[in-house]
Write a structure and sequence with these properties.
globular, TPR repeat, 4-stranded antiparallel β-sheet, alpha+beta
């Protein structure tokens, strides 16, 4: 049983491994030498604020989303334990809490929390949301997770694909609202979402998602997507323009000019010089 109100006391019962600088961590081992490491316990929010996946899908942080002004987002913590790992060590259940401070009617700062239940694939680092925190109250029944209320989850299918995601946000009222909605859907972080849906199979869709992020001013998130796409589609012409625009917006003008030039040359080779946006020539000169 997993009770969110007993998280702190539960964590002290776990076996921890020392990290650098005297820091403690919780390490959950998975299949094929994969692991999920929880570090930096946040007493304020009652959870681990630095969660790193290591395995066949690479090494990356979970729940780490850059914002418009900085590299990471604060207030997201996670909790788990060895009993939450599936018998085949392919999945682990994680309680995620999105926490932050708000001001009440009396002007006092209060902590606002919303807890969820996620499943992490230890084969790839893909994270999917099961539902509310109540779904974490359960136990493994074979390779299926059975919650206390009786519902059984099989994790072979689920989640929202890039194509479905585009369909959900494409008609939203504003660029900022669209980007904000995308952040909510990609709560696990770009590397983890791409572990769920490989970029080489969704190049066009990911390019559009990156473009939507950029339209809403989320250029750091857009660049996380674009940089990954570059390794699979270095010659994709629209991608070059999107990268150039986001780099320019981030103040990296020298890098942006290189991509603008590459984009313009590619368009000229295809005889599409009339389709080159005016800003490209303006910024190149």
């Amino acid at each position: 049983m997993f009770d969110k109100y007993k998280v702190v006391s539960l964590l002290f019962l776990l076996v921890v491994r020392p990290c650098s600088a005297g820091e403690e961590s919780l390490v959950i081992d998975g299949v094929q030498q994969s692991s999920l490491m929880f570090r930096s316990f946040d007493k304020k929010y009652g959870g681990w604020s630095d969660i790193e996946y290591k395995g066949s899908g690479g090494t990356f942080r979970l729940y780490a989303l850059p914002n418009k002004t900085g590299p990471s987002e604060e207030g997201v913590v996670g909790n788990s334990d060895v009993d939450m790992v599936s018998p085949d060590k392919k999945y682990v259940i994680v309680q995620r809490t999105n926490a932050g401070e708000t001001v009440d009617e009396q002007g006092k700062n209060i902590i606002s929390e919303q807890a969820y239940c996620d499943v992490v694939s230890l084969e790839s680092g893909c994270v999917e949301n099961i539902g509310s925190v109540n779904q974490c109250d359960g136990a493994w029944q074979g390779q299926n997770w059975k919650v206390a209320e009786g519902e059984i989850f099989n994790f072979s299918k689920g989640g929202v694909s890039p194509r479905q995601l585009i369909s959900k946000v494409s008609n939203l009222s504003s660029d900022e609202f669209r980007a904000s909605s995308l952040r909510d859907w990609i709560f696990m972080g770009v590397p983890s979402y791409m572990a769920c849906y490989p970029p080489e199979k969704n190049i066009s869709e990911y390019n559009d998602i990156g473009f939507y992020f950029a339209q809403g001013g989320e250029h750091l998130l857009a660049m996380q997507i674009y940089n990954k796409l570059l390794s699979f589609a270095p010659d994709r012409v629209p991608l070059k323009l999107n990268i150039a625009d986001s780099l320019w917006a981030l103040g990296k003008k020298e890098e942006a000019i290189s991509f603008y030039a590459d984009y313009r040359d590619s368009m000229l080779k295809k005889g599409n010089e009339k389709k080159v946006p005016a800003r490209v020539e303006e910024r190149l000169h």
